[in-house]
Amino acid sequence: MAKTSSVEKNNRRRRMAAQYAGKRAALKAIARDQKLSLEERFQAQLKLSKLPRNSSATRIRNRCELTGRPRGYYRKLGLSRLALRELSNQGMIPGMVKSSW
Q: Which positions of the chain have pLDDT values less than 50?
């Protein structure tokens, strides 16, 4: 099990990214717009840098839903490889069976 503080920090980042998503997208659109003056684009870039760092979606770490493990994460299932193996051995994941040949 991962440290509770790490999982909570990641959850806080998710909430903050969702909260600032609209504002961040609008400022990025202004900063990228070639039709606007250089001054306006630079002001948008400055405002973007004033936003909290944790409001950026790139700072969110994919973690296992059950254990909080950050490595060996399967995006499609939202689980780490260890939790996936454990659940599949118990028959909790439909259609997944132990391989043998």
A: none
pLDDT of residue 8: 95
3-state secondary structure the chain: CCCHHHHHHHHHHHHHHHHHHHHHHHHHHHHHCCCCCHHHHHHHHHHHHHCCHHHCHHHCCCCCCCCCCCCCEECCCCEEHHHHHHHHHCCCCCCCCCCCC
Sort residue 68 into left (φ over 0), alpha (ψ -120 to 50) or beta: left
* Domains of the chain by residue range: 1-61, 63-94
CATH number of the domain at 1-61, please? 1.10.287.1480
Question: Rounded to two decimals, what is the model's pTM?
Answer: 0.83
